[in-house]
């Protein structure tokens, strides 16, 4: 016959890591007295791979009126002419450079903060030199100097 004295305990599965991050789970842990360690990720969920060339805190500490360095308007015109000669829109060009269309727009309008990595990508895609003394000239093929 059946043993009526046997007790079966069904345990819940442990929570997943994502479920432990909810506000409800954190509050429950606080009530239970469990030590909680919270950290905020820097730049989490944002496309912040390119840092500005000048430190903004350093600019804030200065008493003078300082501004970030901007892309020269001539460089913006060279980028625009190179892009238009290939028949690309700003969005097409940004996709080929793996950048946001707003970045291309800022660079062409002379509002962008110069970043050598972005300029290098644009040079390779356009095939036009964007840095140095011979800006606007065709870029030499790789391996030839």
Q: If you had to describe this structure to a student in words, what would you say it looks like?
A:
Helices cover 39% and strands 0% of the residues. It is an all-alpha fold and 145 residues long. It has a domain at 74-126: lambda repressor-like DNA-binding domains (434 Repressor (Amino-terminal Domain)), CATH 1.10.260.40. It is elongated, with a radius of gyration of 28 Å. It comes from Nesidiocoris tenuis. Residues 37-53 have a biased composition (Polar residues). Residues 15-53 are annotated as: Disordered. InterPro entries: Cro/C1-type_HTH (IPR001387), Lambda_DNA-bd_dom_sf (IPR010982), MBF1_N (IPR013729).
- Specify the helix fraction band: 25-40%
Strand content: under 5%
Poorly predicted spans: none
Class per helix and strand makeup: mainly alpha
Question: Can you tell me the overall shape?
Answer: elongated
Reported by name, the CATH topology of the domain at 74-126 is 434 Repressor (Amino-terminal Domain)
Sheet with the most strands, sense and barrel status: none
Q: Which sequence of SSEs, written as H and E, runs from N to C?
A: HHHHHH
CATH architectural designation of the domain at 74-126: Orthogonal Bundle
Going by CATH, the homologous superfamily of the domain at 74-126 would be lambda repressor-like DNA-binding domains
Number of helices: 6
Query: C-alpha Rg, in Å?
Result: 28 Å
Q: End-to-end span in angstroms?
A: 92 Å
How many strands?
0
Quote the average pLDDT.
81
The CATH class of the domain at 74-126, by name, is Mainly Alpha
Pfam families: HTH_3, MBF1
Region (Disordered): 15-53
Keywords: DNA-binding, Transcription, Transcription regulation
Domain HTH cro/C1-type: 79-133
């Amino acid at each position: 016959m059946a043993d009526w004295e046997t007790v079966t305990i069904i345990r819940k599965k442990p929570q997943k890591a994502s479920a432990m991050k909810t506000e409800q789970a954190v509050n429950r842990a606080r009530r239970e007295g469990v030590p909680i360690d919270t950290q905020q990720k820097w730049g989490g969920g944002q496309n912040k791979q390119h840092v500005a060339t000048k430190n903004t805190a350093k600019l804030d500490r200065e008493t003078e009126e300082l501004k970030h360095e901007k892309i020269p308007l001539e460089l913006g015109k060279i980028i625009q002419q190179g892009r238009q000669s290939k028949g690309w829109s700003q969005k097409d060009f940004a996709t080929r450079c793996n950048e946001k269309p707003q970045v291309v727009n800022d660079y062409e309008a002379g509002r962008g903060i110069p970043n050598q990595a972005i300029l290098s990508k644009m040079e390779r895609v356009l095939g036009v030199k964007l840095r140095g003394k011979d800006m606007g000239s065709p870029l030499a093929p790789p391996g030839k100097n």
